[in-house]
Specification:
Layout lengths: L1 H26 L11 E5 L2 E7 L10 E7 L4 E8 L6 E9 H9 L9
Antiparallel strand pairs: 1-2, 2-3, 3-4, 4-5
Length: 114
């Protein structure tokens, strides 16, 4: 009888450890990329996302606007640059999302830096 209890306890401990390992693997697994924006709004089949300007921009006060046509599959990106009295809106890029993402797939990657 003691042998049966010991075996059951060992099996229970082993299954608890295995379950714990599986949970840890799931928690540390692949996660969806997150988009951060200052403001995101959606309505009428469109999504607008505003954020600080591009990191390569010379103007540190620039703001970007991404406009998505959810039904048509189009994306257009604008940037507001310049100081307050002389601000201008610049079209960065736009077109069908399929084409934009396909083109982005073949962009050269920058070497890893320090």
């Amino acid at each position: 009888m003691n042998y049966l209890k010991s075996q059951s306890r060992s099996l229970l401990t082993l299954s608890a450890l295995l379950l714990g390992i599986l949970i840890l693997v799931q928690l540390g697994g692949y996660q969806q990329p997150v988009v951060h924006g200052d403001m995101i709004t959606e309505g009428g089949g469109f999504t607008m996302l505003t954020m600080g300007g591009r990191s390569a921009s010379r103007d540190k006060d620039s703001q970007s606007l991404i406009l998505l046509d959810n039904r048509g599959g189009w994306m257009i990106a604008y940037e507001l640059t310049g100081s307050k009295p002389n601000r201008s809106i610049e079209l960065l890029d736009g077109g069908p999302m399929e084409r934009l993402f396909e083109r982005g797939r073949f962009l050269p990657t920058s070497p890893a830096g320090p």
